[in-house]
From TrEMBL:
Pfam families: Peptidase_S10. Keywords: Carboxypeptidase, Glycoprotein, Hydrolase, Protease, Signal. GO terms for cellular component: fungal-type vacuole. This is Alpha/Beta hydrolase protein.
Amino acid sequence: MARLKAFSLTPLLLLLLDFFQFVNSSNSSTNTTRETKLLYSKNSGICETSEGVGQYSGYINVGDDNFLWFWFFESRNDASSDPFVLWLNGGPGCSSMIGLFTETGPCTVNSDGKSTSLNPYSWNNYSNILYLDQPFGAGFSTGPTLTNSSAAATYAWTAFQVLFTSEAFADYSNRQFVLATESYGARFGPVFIDYFNSQNKLIDSGDLDGVKIVVSSLMINNGKHDPLINFQSLVAFAQDAPGYGPLVNNSVISTISKAFDNTCSTLLQDCYDADISKDSSADKCNTAITTCTDDVMTPAVGDRDADYLLASSDTDDTVPTTYYATYIRLDDVQEAIGATLLNSSPTFDQCDDTTHALFSQSGETGRTFLPELAALADSGFRILIWGGDADMKANWLGLHQSMVQMSWYGNHTLNDTTLTNMTINGGDVASYAVVDNFTFARVYEAGHTLPSYKPLVAQTIFQQFVANQTIHSVETSTPTPSASAADNASSTASVNAILIFNFVLSVMSGFI
Ligand SMILES: *[C@@H]1O[C@H](CO)[C@@H](O)[C@H](O)[C@H]1NC(C)=O
Ligand SMILES: *[C@@H]1O[C@H](CO)[C@@H](O)[C@H](O)[C@H]1NC(C)=O
Ligand SMILES: *[C@@H]1O[C@H](CO)[C@@H](O)[C@H](O)[C@H]1NC(C)=O
Ligand SMILES: *[C@@H]1O[C@H](CO)[C@@H](O)[C@H](O)[C@H]1NC(C)=O
Ligand SMILES: *[C@@H]1O[C@H](CO)[C@@H](O)[C@H](O)[C@H]1NC(C)=O
Ligand SMILES: *[C@@H]1O[C@H](CO)[C@@H](O)[C@H](O)[C@H]1NC(C)=O
Ligand SMILES: *[C@@H]1O[C@H](CO)[C@@H](O)[C@H](O)[C@H]1NC(C)=O
Ligand SMILES: *[C@@H]1O[C@H](CO)[C@@H](O)[C@H](O)[C@H]1NC(C)=O
Ligand SMILES: *[C@@H]1O[C@H](CO)[C@@H](O)[C@H](O)[C@H]1NC(C)=O
Ligand SMILES: *[C@@H]1O[C@H](CO)[C@@H](O)[C@H](O)[C@H]1NC(C)=O
Ligand SMILES: *[C@@H]1O[C@H](CO)[C@@H](O)[C@H](O)[C@H]1NC(C)=O
């Protein structure tokens, strides 16, 4: 259903882009600014309505007619010194507008699909944050469809070359840079940092002319780190999910356990062992992930919502839209945020099926991405691996096991460390373990898109992480806005929206 947005940026327009270099050609009707390779709308007044908090949204030209869509918000606290955060949703192929409007951004969209409410748990309370739609095909971004995260990394790097040499973003180029990813972002995160670091080395040695992109920390929630460990742990999770008990009966356990042992694990092991340079390896990996999903994941999930085991998947009368997706498709919203700068009627799909299919066919979704993460962890890099404990897509037992089985110096210590509860105003909200700069956290009663379910908990952990603090319990003397009420609200009323939304995503992508 996702089509590549065909348009042609004429050479004349490219010339115009150059002509307008560093000229703020404020357009009286749209406040559009054009810099070299960057065109955006400034302070559209959409979503972030807090007084004095700036925002930019638009397109980054990363070569030829290829453009990545971004939306950036200044910190509500101190934009001139707070960290710079890059948020990436997963898929692969899902728009980071999902994160912006339903997880960590400055607003949420009301049920009318036309108005927004400020999100007090937004991550821009403590950081400057940029949401990037990538790879091409995701959200408003447009360009050739890619087949793997390594290729995606090169365009993300180019995007930051443009941003950090632009007038609008130059101030952020030396700021503490935090990368926050979700789900398939378990692959984007380590691969992007790896690539950025290799480019930094070339710049240092004089072999490359460019701006260094120095990422200082990485946080991944509900990540797809390792299919083999994920599916194996899912069998145990379905049998007895900590805090929830058995999720399916013994006959289903027996079925999925046999499926894992007899086919899924063997196929995945074949995929892991295959020579990545051979075409047959892609086929093996694609077959493995499909088989494991059908024979282990699907029966384990049953009638539940894979994103949130406390909910049922029985949402068959929902239309394929969400409040935020309705909102972002409104003409006046698109005009205001600059989404129409390239094409007067851009299409928006929350997840791009073509990208998802190509990444699967290339074999990437079936492979482990632990080696890249292991190298970072082994170097003492600051990492937070966290997950909602009601998520079945990336069950937290599998997240923990992935970190324990990963090859890095802290694996034994992590294995031997009992998780400690974190409380907010005395209530248990999460449990965690720390090994130097590495933190693992399980967030109670949160689903796949963790911050949607537990906004206060997510914001609190985020705040501590970006401040270089060790995760810890907190007492808020003035509980404004009401802590538990907010997180309760999200686990009842507004979760209905999330559930519908997750259902749509599940149907559209299968693997988010
Ligand atoms: C301002 O933007 C509008 C809408 O995109 C366009 O029609 C108009 O020509 C622009 N005006 C100038 C002076 O660039
Ligand atoms: C342009 O920006 C100014 C402040 O930056 C704002 O007051 C005004 O409403 C904006 N105009 C439009 C058409 O968005
Ligand atoms: C986040 O910032 C908004 C706007 O400044 C404020 O209303 C809200 O209380 C802040 N949230 C928290 C949890 O402090
Ligand atoms: C990723 O895709 C690019 C472009 O198609 C290709 O050149 C490269 O070999 C691929 N890399 C991996 C690791 O598959
Ligand atoms: C176990 O659960 C499955 C799926 O819900 C159901 O079809 C089956 O009848 C159940 N078996 C028993 C023995 O309850
Ligand atoms: C933790 O990170 C800090 C800051 O980057 C670094 O100085 C320190 O060496 C790291 N610790 C370990 C044990 O690697
Ligand atoms: C733990 O990491 C070490 C490397 O530091 C590795 O040799 C070992 O295999 C890992 N343990 C497991 C169980 O994977
Ligand atoms: C983790 O602990 C279990 C026993 O509790 C042990 O069997 C396993 O080998 C340990 N793994 C690592 C990586 O230390
Ligand atoms: C940690 O929190 C969980 C969930 O509330 C609770 O069941 C458990 O008893 C707590 N553990 C400790 C040691 O307080
Ligand atoms: C956190 O540590 C990094 C180094 O790893 C440093 O650059 C940054 O300034 C620190 N941030 C804060 C808020 O202390
Ligand atoms: C939140 O929900 C729990 C049960 O789900 C309830 O015990 C608690 O009182 C609620 N808290 C608030 C502030 O509504």
